[in-house]
């Protein structure tokens, strides 16, 4: 789905930053307590901000119980607790580094690095929530990886472009532009180049100008969806994306400027 070497040129910094704030959640930005042990013997017990913390355990025999106990003893001081066995952590890191294949889709590799955390369920432990849903950069899009891959296969024609736009009032707050090659691999990941597109004159005019620019710059735009910030948050939080799109189309600002027939019939917008 994501080419191993996608082009990421002419990104609008503000659009990209806003998009990240909406779609991504970083474990590194959270307050966390890290415990590293070697076969139960604690070697490190520290808060990410070096705060004073309670240490209700002095040995790790049951990492799941220990993580929960540490979290509850420091309620309000940490967003999560991580309890790692040193040897397992080293093996995990070496494993995903060795697993890299140059011809592999980038998203498949990243997905596998997170999924492989499940192989260390008793050694790389976080609380609350499992390690694969807590550590690193987490997508908050209300859909599983396999669901996103299936949606691309179903709704995005080969050799075409996709654009998503989000408005805050009448200003374009964020955009995402993707171009898919003949194998439906995203070989371009960028934003609208705001230095080359006039987005003044209201939402509908801005959306039309953006679609025209994508057509001219990256080839046929097959999917173009625009909404406001409230609508984007509601769509991302929804589990049933088709239903969410139909609700948005009848309420908040929601412009389906371009849709393939497969997606148009699902949304059923009059």
Question: Could you explain the architecture of this structure?
Answer:
The chain has 270 residues and is of the alpha/beta class. It folds into 2 domains: 2-23 and 142-267, Nonspecific Lipid-transfer Protein, Chain A (2-Layer Sandwich); 31-139, no CATH class. It is built from 9 helices and 12 strands. It has helices at 13-23, 63-73, 86-98, 106-115, 145-155, 203-218, 229-237, 241-249, 261-267; strands spanning 2-7, 24-26, 32-38, 41-47, 80-85, 124-127, 137-139, 160-168, 171-180, 186-190, 221-228, 254-258. It has a 6-stranded mixed beta sheet, sandwiched between helices. A hairpin with a 2-residue loop joins strand 3 (32-38) and strand 4 (41-47). It is elongated, with a radius of gyration of 22 Å. The chain starts with a strand and ends with a helix.
Number of domains: 2
What is the CATH architecture term of the largest domain? 2-Layer Sandwich
The number of helical segments is 9
Q: Looking across the biggest beta sheet, what order are the strands in?
A: 1-10-9-8-11-12
- SS-based class: alpha/beta
Alpha carbon gyration radius: 22 Å
Cα distance spanning the termini: 31 Å
Which whole number gives the mean pLDDT?
Answer: 90
The percentage of residues in β strands lies in 25-35%
Helix and strand element order: EHEEEHEHHEEHEEEHEHHEH
Got a strand count? 12
CATH topology name of the largest domain = Nonspecific Lipid-transfer Protein, Chain A
Helix content estimate: 25-40%
Unreliable segments (pLDDT under 50, ≥5 consecutive)? none
* CATH class descriptor of the largest domain: Alpha Beta
Sheet having the most strands:
6 strands, mixed
So what's the overall shape? elongated
